[in-house]
Amino acid sequence: MTNLTTKLALATLIGAGLVVGGTVEAAPKKGGILNYVVGSKIPSYDGHKETTFGMIHPIRPYYSTLIRVNPDNPASPTDFVCDVCVGDVPKGEEGGTKFTFKIRKDVEFHDGTPMTAQDVKATMDKIIFPPKGIPSARKAFFKAVASITAPDDETVIFKLAFPTGTFIPALALPFNFIYSKKDLDTHGYTWHQKNVNGTGAFKFVQHQKGSFVEGVRNASYHHKGKPYLDGIKAISAPKLAVRVQAIRGDRASIEFRGFPPKHRDDLVKALGNKITVQESDWNCVLMFAPNHKVKPFDDPRVRRALTYAVDRHGGSKYLSRIAIVKTVGGIVFPNHPFAANEAELSKLAGYSKDIGASRAEAKKLLAAAGVPNLKFVLNNRGVDQPYKVVGTWLIDQWKKVGMKVTQRVQPSPPFYATLRKKKDFDVSIDFNCQSVINPIADITKFLTTAGNNYSAGGDAKADAIYEKLLRSADPKEQRAMIRQYEKRVIDDAMVAAITLWWYKINPHRSYVKGWKIAPSHYLNQHLDNIWLDK
Amino acid sequence: MATASEIQVDDDFAELAEKKAWHQVAIDLVRKQPLAAGGFAIVVMMVLMAIFAEFLTFFPPEDNDLEHMLEAPNDVYILGADQFGRDLLTRIVFGARTALFVGFTCAIVGATCGMVLGVASAYFGGTFDLIVQRLVDVIMAFPLIILALAVVATLGPGTVNVIIAITIPFIPQCARVVRSNALAIREIPYVDAARALGFSDARIILRHMAPNVMAPFLIMLTSFLGQAILLEASLSYLGMGVQEPTPAWGLMLQGGAEEFAESAPWVAIWPGVAISLAVFGFNLFGDGVRDTLDPKLRSR
User: Fold this and answer.
1) Total structural domains in chain A?
2) A387: DSSP letter
3) Which of A85, A108, A284, A401 is the most exposed place for a label (fewest CB within 10 A)?
C-alpha cells in the first residue's frame, strides 16, 4: 500500500508535464480577450451527452462542476478540489458508501437564478439515472451510485451500493456540467443541447456556426477575483495548418488539444521565447477494434494476429517524431501505478521487442484460421493527428504479415455513425480518451456492455474479472486484477487492441499565463485561472 | 495545255499523296504548334510513367521505411523521402497512374455522356430539350469543385466515388457545347432523310449526328483531362479523394505540405510540381487540339 502511494506520488510528479521555457509567474493581470483555436466542430452543447473536445473547449468555460481536478496540479490523478461545493472534497462515510457535499450559497446561473443543491441533484440524476431515450455518455462511470438526495438546498448526499475508488474521480469529470433544475423541468432534458445556461467563469454570448463561440466575463462568478480575462473566443479551425499559423501570426494565443512535434519545433524556431511549450503524457490511447460480428474477425486467432503484427516499440521510436503518439503501454494510463510495467507488457501479444517472432506468430495464427492472405478495409477517422498517420502506419504493419488492407477515411460524424449505429466495418480505428485519470473506470471500454466498446463483442471472463475489480478496495489486489483483465481483453480474447498512447504538446504564446497542461485535453478548460501578461 | 488552276490542283493531290515520315510530321507539328507539341510531350511522358511505373522506380510505393523518414534528396532518394520514409520519386511516378486513371475515366465518361445528352437534346427539341437544358443550367450554376465536393461528401471518399463526383459536373458542360453544334446539324437534310428512311432515333443520334460533333467533343475531352486531374488532386488534398497508402499527388500534398513545408519542403514541392506540370501539359495539348479542329482558329 505504502509502495503504491509512493508510486502514486511519483506518478504525479512524472505526469506533471515538462514545461519548456517556463518562468516564475507574477501576480495575475486582469483584462484582455483570450483567442484560442479549436480543431473540431461542436456536435451539441450538452456536456452530459458529448464526448469530444470539440464541445469541451468552447463550452466548458460557461459551466461549473461539483468538484474538479485541482487547476494548479492538473496532472495529479488524486488531487481534486471543490468547484460549487464548500471546503475540501468529502471523504467517504459509512465504509466509503456515503458522500455528503455542502453546496456554496453564492453560486448563480447566468440567467440570475441562484444555484442550490436541488440543481446539483437534478444534474447528477440526469447523468447517472437518465430517463429512457436521454443519452448519458458517462452513466457507466457511476455504476456504484445507489441514490442521490438533497435534504436541503445546501446538501447533496450520494449513497453507493458498494465502496469504490472510481466515484470521486468520476465526479470530477469536466463533462458533468451543472444544469439548472428549473431549465430541466421547464424545457426538458434536451434543451441544453442547443442552449447554454451555466454558472461558469464566462457568460455565453454567441456561437457563429463554423466560425467561433464567444463569451464574456461572469462578474458574479463564485470564485472571487476570477476570471482574470474580460472574455474568450473559441475560433473554429479544423485544419491543423490553420491552427498553427493562427498562433504563429498571433491571431490566436493557444490551442488546447495538442500539436505534433514538427509544429512545436517550427513555432519555437520562428518565435523563440515568444512561445512557451508545455508537454505531458496524455490519457488518450489510439486503438483498433475488429468487428467481432464480421468474419473472419469472429475468430480470436485472427484478432490476435492483428495485434501480433504491430511493432509498437518501433512505432513509438519513429511515429513520435511526426505524430502526437509516443508511449508504449497497456490498457491503463502508462504513468499510473496500475499500469503494466515493461516486463508485464512484454508478455502480452504484440508487445515483445522481438518483432520477428511476433510476426511469425501472426502468420501462424492467420494460417491456422485459414486466412493467410487476409484482405480487409480499415475504417478510419478523417483527422490527421493521430488517426490518419497511425492508420497508414498500421496498414504497413499488417502488410508485413501478408494482409492486404485498404483504408476508408470518413469525416467524424459518419465515422461515429459507422462505429455506433451502422457497424459496417471490418476493423476500425478506435480510441479511448479519458479526462480524469481513473483507471478502473477508464478500462470499462472493453466490457461487453460498454456503450463505447465498438467491437460488437466482448469477453465473459473479462467482464467477470471487472465485476470483482469494481468491488475491491485493496490497490494491490486491484492491480493484480487489472493485469488479468488486460491479458483477456488485449491478448487472449483480443476484444480490441492498443496501439500507442498519445503525447500532448501545447505550444502557446508566452503571454498566456496561469494555464497548466493536464494529462488530458478535456481537463483544466474552465479557463478561470488564465491571464494575459501583455 | 494545262491551265494554271489545273496545275495547282495536281500539286495539291501530289502533296496529299506524299507520305511523310513520322519524324517529319513531328517536326511539322512542333513548328506549327510548338506549345501543343510541348503539352503532348508531357502527356506522353505521363502515360509512359503510368504504364512503366514498376520499371522506372526502385522502391515499393506503399511500403514504409521509417528509418529514412523525411530524408532530404540524395543519391538514393533522388527527390527525398516523405514522413513514412517512402521514396517521393516512386510515389510521383505511381501517382501518375492514379491521376491518369481518374483523369481519363472522368473525361471520357463525362464527355461521352454529355455528347449523347447534348445531341439527344438538340435532336428531340421541345419539352425534352427544355427540361434537359434547365437541368444543365442548374448543375452548371455550381462551381465545379463545389459540386464535386458535394457529391463526394454524399457518397464518401474513395477512388470510385471521386470519379463519380468529377464526372457528374462534366456531363452538362459537354452537353451544352455539343447541343449548340447539334442544333445546326439537325437542320441538315440528311437527318431528315434518315428519319424518312425509318431509322430509329437512337441510330440517327449515335450513327449520324454524333460523329459530326466530334470536333467540340474532342476539345471538351482534352480540356476535361486537365480539369479532372486537378479536381482529383484537390479532393485528395481535402481528404475526400483517394486514401492512403495509395500514391496520389493531391494526397501527397495533403500529408506533407501542411506539416513539413518548413522542415522538409521537398515533401510538398514535388507533388505540387507534378500536378502543375500535368495540368499544364493537358491544357496546352487541349488548346492545340482546339486550334487544329476549330476552323475559325485554324484560319488565323
Assistant:
1) 2
2) I
3) A108
**Which residue, among B94, B96, B113, has the nearest Cα to B224 in the 3D structure?**
B113
A269 by Cβ neighbours in 10 Å (0-12 / 13-18 / 19+) ranks as exposed
- CATH pick for B79-298 out of 1.10.260.40, 1.10.3720.10, 3.40.50.720, 2.30.36.70: 1.10.3720.10
- Cell triple for residue B185? 446539324
How many CA atoms are closer than 13 Å to the CA of A286, on its beta-carbon side? Answer: 30
- Please give the span between the terminal C-alpha atoms of chain A, in angstroms, as a whole number: 47
Where do the structural domains in chain B lie, given as residue ranges?
79-298
B84 interfacial to chain A (CB closer than 8 Å)? yes
- The DSSP H or E segment spanning A333 is none
| Burial (CB count <10 Å: 0-12, 13-18, 19+), residue B160 | exposed
Please answer yes or no on whether A266 and B263 come within 8 Å at the CB atom.
Answer: yes
pLDDT value for B18? 60
Q: Which of B180, B164, B171 is nearest to B220 (CA)?
A: B171
- Provide block-wise average pLDDT over 10 residues at a time, chain A (534 residues): 45 43 69 95 92 94 97 90 96 94 97 97 96 88 94 97 90 97 96 97 96 97 96 93 94 95 92 96 95 95 97 95 94 92 95 96 96 95 89 96 93 86 93 90 90 90 93 90 97 96 96 95 96 94
Question: What is residue B158's predicted lDDT score, i.e. its pLDDT?
Answer: 81
- Closest residue in B to A241 (Cα–Cα): B258
Q: Quick check: B157 and A408 CB within 8 A?
A: yes
**Residue B129 Cα to chain centre, angstroms:** 27
CA distance linking residue A84 with residue A67, whole number of Å = 7
> For B152-196, how does the pLDDT look when each residue is reduced to its tens digit (9 = 90+)?
888 888 888 899 999 999 999 999 999 999 999 988 898 889 989
Containing domain of residue A35, as a range?
27-253+511-532
pLDDT at site B296: 62
Q: Please tell me if residue A404 touches chain B, with a CB cutoff of 8 Å.
A: no
